[in-house]
Amino acid sequence: MNLDREKQLAAIEAVKYVKSGMTVGLGTGSTAAHMVKDLGRLVQNGLKIVGVPSSENTKKLAMELGIPLTTLEKTNGIDVYIDGADEFDPYMQLIKGGGGALLREKILTFNSDLVIIIADSQKEVKRLGDFKLPVETIPFATKKIEQSLQKMGLQPKLRVKNDENFVTDEGNFILDLNIGHISNIQLLETKLKQIPGVVETGLFLDMADIIIIGQGETTITLKK
Ligand code: 5RP
């Protein structure tokens, strides 16, 4: 199974929803990178779009490819947002944030008319929760949040990169939680968001309109 090929096929299929004149939200991660590359190719062939990147990494890639960019506050909204996911279930609920860009990703998702998730076949699960749920926290509160989450049995782990705390594009930390296959994911989201200093979670509930999955040499499309 060639997962990278599946990511690429899903990305190419998603890009078919992009038309000239659109403002396009650009996700983050290896799957989204395929989408940005395909868009770059189309822009070089005359497609007129403006991109809104969800991370500094995606911004850099899009600039290298010559995709015109803007910021969220300068747009009147985003026509289509395309991004990857770490897990999705049959109800099109998602865990995102493995790449650490969940805050900007969730803001762009919320402000988009159409949200398309692209994924390889291994991202599909019966129930969310095998993937550790990323939660973005402000550094000032992170130690206390960690203690609260520990008491809730969620086994928080501060994300580290190159022996240092991982810092998001917004200057925050990430705690990765072991949520297991809990039944009430909406309640978990509410509880997490009630903790002061929790900025955002990687639960993207009822946010995806379309999921395109690469499957071998073809794609499968799920719609809301
Ligand atoms: C980044 C994300 C990514 O979309 C998610 O981690 C999937 O990444 P990849 O496409 O590399 O598997 O949420 O914050």
Which short descriptors sum up this protein?
single chain; 224 residues; alpha/beta; six-stranded mixed β-sheet; four-stranded antiparallel β-sheet; 6 helices; binds ribulose-5-phosphate
Descriptive account of the structure:
The protein is α/β, with parallel strands linked by helices. The chain is about 30% helix and about 25% strand. It has helices at about 5-15, 30-45, 55-65, 100-110, 140-150, 185-195, and strands at about 25, 50-55, 80-85, 85-90, 95, 110-120, 135, 155-160, 160, 165, 175, 200, 205, 210-215, 220-224. Strand 9 (about 160) and strand 10 (about 165) form a beta hairpin. The longest helix is centred in the first third of the chain and has 15 residues, at about 30-45. It is globular and about 55 Å long. The chain starts with a helix and ends with a strand. The model has no long low-confidence stretch (mean pLDDT about 95). The site of ribulose-5-phosphate has 18 residues, from helix 2 and helix 4. Ribulose-5-phosphate binds next to helix 2 and helix 4.
